[in-house]
Amino acid sequence: MLYKLKYKAMKNTVLITGASSGFGKEAAKLFHTNNWNVIATMRSPERETELASLSNVFITKLDVTDQQSIQNAVAAGIEKFGKIDVLVNNAGYGAMGALEAAKEEEIKQQFDVNLFGLIAVTKAVLPAMRKQRSGTIINVSSVGGRVTFPFSSLYHATKFAVEGLTESMQYELNPFGIHFKIVEPGGYKTEFAGRSMALFGVDDLHDYKPAFDKFTAMLDNWPMSENIGEVADAIYQAATDGTEKLRYPVGHDAAQLIQTRGQMDDVEFKKMMVGQMGI
């Protein structure tokens, strides 16, 4: 079944969270290039210069853990452009380490940003989308929403939750003309491995240290792609292809890992991963 965005006299408008860098910023530029209005949101909009120089790009503050900033950004975006046709929930980060070593605030923060923040932003745009009887919500998940790695349990828990949340919401919101997409990037050279990663490690739990050291060494040597434009392309395709397609894996490692996982049972896949990582 095909569906189409309801094109009106005015341009289509996209709101993107986490647009200060990486996939979010690249997607904002791509939508702008294709003549969309862009609401580019970020925690520190005063630092952004590149997007600020583009016409029809509105930069505003949005912290997904701050309900008031979410409401303010959505209201300001609608006031500026009249509507929101597409929401891209892109903000997120990875908390890495042994679950036993994670502090309560680290656990809470991972879920607040990656899951509860995504839900809060989604809920903020839904009234306007229901009123206009159209819209597309694109949740940027990860290959980590389908396949797991060691020492990443908190991150995987949030991304698996995003996958289930998104798939389920189709049923309740498709009748109002609102559609859902999941973009699943593999490994890319963004700030995810820098400021967007919280490496809480193993603390003083020395039993975990040998395996954790091997895991982090593997991450350091993981073949990351530099072409983050591939992910922006997938986001734009998801926003505009007019299909009911739900998932968009992107990156050679994402497609390969997801395919391999589907061909193996749980024990076989675990043994393969343990063998590759040497843990």
Encode the helix/strand succession as letters.
EHEEHEEHEHEEHHEHH
Shape: globular
Unreliable segments of 5+ consecutive residues: none
Sketch the major β-sheet: 7 strands, parallel
- Spatially, the strands of the biggest sheet line up as 3-2-1-4-6-7-9
- Count of DSSP-assigned helices: 8
Helix content: 40-55%
Mean pLDDT: 92
Structural class: alpha/beta
Quote the distance from N terminus to C terminus.
Answer: 46 Å
Computed CA radius of gyration, to the nearest angstrom: 19 Å
Number of strands: 9
Instruction: Report the sheet-strand fraction.
Output: 15-25%
Notes on the structure:
- This protein is globular.
- The protein is built from eight helices and nine strands.
- The mean pLDDT is 92.
- Strand 6 (135-140), helix 4 and strand 7 (178-185) form a beta-alpha-beta unit.
- The strands form two sheets. Strands 3-2-1-4-6-7-9 form a seven-stranded parallel sheet, with helices on both faces.
- Helix 3 runs parallel beside helix 4 (153-173).
- The protein has helices at residues 22-33, 67-81, 104-132, 153-173, 209-220, 229-240, 252-263, 266-277, and strands at 13-16, 37-42, 57-61, 86-89, 94-97, 135-140, 178-185, 197-201, 247-250.
- With 279 residues, it is of the alpha/beta class.
